Amino acid sequence: MQRIGKYTLQLDPPAYIRGSGSFAGKKEGEGPLKDYFDATHDDTTLGEESWEKAESKLQTEAVKTAIQKAHLKPADIQYIFAGDLLNQCISSTYGLRDLDIPFLGQYGACSTMAQGMGMASVFVSGGAAENAVAVTSSHFCSAERQFRFPLEYGGQRTPTAQWTATAAGAVVMGKQPGAISVREVTFGRMTDLGVSDANNMGAAMAPAAVRTLTDYFTDTGATPQDFDLILTGDLGYVGSSLLREIMRKAGWDIETNHNDCGLMIYNRKEQDVHAGGSGCGCSGSVVCGYILKQMAQGILKDVLFTATGALMSPTALQQGESIVGIAHAVHLHLET
Amino acid sequence: MQRIGKYTLQLDPPAYIRGSGSFAGKKEGEGPLKDYFDATHDDTTLGEESWEKAESKLQTEAVKTAIQKAHLKPADIQYIFAGDLLNQCISSTYGLRDLDIPFLGQYGACSTMAQGMGMASVFVSGGAAENAVAVTSSHFCSAERQFRFPLEYGGQRTPTAQWTATAAGAVVMGKQPGAISVREVTFGRMTDLGVSDANNMGAAMAPAAVRTLTDYFTDTGATPQDFDLILTGDLGYVGSSLLREIMRKAGWDIETNHNDCGLMIYNRKEQDVHAGGSGCGCSGSVVCGYILKQMAQGILKDVLFTATGALMSPTALQQGESIVGIAHAVHLHLET
């Protein structure tokens, strides 16, 4: 492992993706990526007694599938990096407690998939683990009632609001060489430009994505054109437009090869999701489902996955605080 | 870095403690460790508008002091591992956002100090960082109103309840050799024996401490007698009694050299704290204040710091869930 520039880790040896799992709910199963999830659930409770328990179950499914696809058993995994949006990260705790794998809770809000993937990659590359799992989830219903309003209230959503995806994604990172590797990781700094509208997370997170992307390009000497896809998650429509504009003004053109998990998971025009998808499980399920499958088929070779998070709580906003953004970047590379 | 046994990382090269900071509130400043904090605050709001903001300020103070004592600047720190008990870890976010250091949010409940210290040590030992900070905090008032009752309600506390410490601890781990090192780290597995009383966290966490301690001893071949102090945090009186009893039955005698941060931070008989202290900031401030100072003076040479966490939320308990315990162990060694 080697530090390059101010903020980037070059993983040598790289960490390889050995398996992944991606599960989602009904609405996601009606969207454009429906064929790329391992399974979708028509019942948003997944047969559980609460939405929180349903979200936990999504994590369990994602991790078990990822480990299975890696042809491993839970005992072969040294660490699991997991986190979610719920208070005290309970989806992770209750979803993973039976696995008996050393557990390292992560909190990066919607950046959790990239944070956990980066963390697992650093542990594998540095010799701390042979295999490590990263997983995250979100659930529309558990998130709405915790962060905004009870669903029964039937509140109107603003045009800038994003739709929290009911989904989970998990990945097994390992030392044993495979088709897809993580080559570099850039963990981000917190960025706060004063946005305090919880219904406009995209605007709060875009500046953090700009920062981490420019850190990555500056550190590595790479340019946006070196990537088939610069993939943020989940800025949605408002945040993505902001990101592209600020990047262009800063001299980095990502117009042609940028996309955002929040814009990919739903059909924005037909599915009434306003500015697009969000939630840890959005980028988690898109990357661990669609993206890795596209890479495995050779359609994508180099993807700069940059997940963004809005670090805030209803309590903080009620006390007049702004929303702090963060973004972590992971370079996914298809080995030739 | 090398894996020994099933669960332990031997850090070679070790990571060294370069500086630490420890701040606390009024009640802690009236306790037996009062002279070991860098400062204590008589005003529980620290001059801020809310207890949550006060808690953030404790983290700011602890980190700035730790970096200063290490004779470093924030720009010399590559990563900051931080977490706390508040929903979405807002004490960490708002306390650290201005530092401009890549931020990796951790969630380990009251085990966060050991988790972050272990994480920072792994990153330093593995070459991912020259210096990394670990920090955590808790605040009696912000925790009570979030987890239990509004303070104004004046609810009676049960005899097994612990008192959330108003405190923060931070440490700078670095590559440059110093007097105190982290030699091994054992990250724990989740343990759930079905305890569901939020006023008896000690009982929920003790089995997790047993597991991580026995993992550590089994992996390394060390015995409890190799340590001047086996330090849990924060099991309090009930959990500590349970821990010692289970360990004795399992053939590991820790009677003479075990202590618990929750039993050390207050005078239990005179300060009306029932079963003792708790909260991330309890073990954080005790280790980063008292313990490291005792080590620097040569009074303690080998300390097995094993912080325990209760992974749960009020929502989970209301839905009938039990409290999941976790414990992470870090071997602190005074170099000769």
From TrEMBL, chains A, B:
InterPro entries: SpoVAD, SpoVAD_sf, Thiolase-like. Transmembrane segments: none annotated. This is Stage V sporulation protein AD. Pfam families: SpoVAD (PF07451). The gene is spoVAD. GO terms for molecular function: acyltransferase activity.
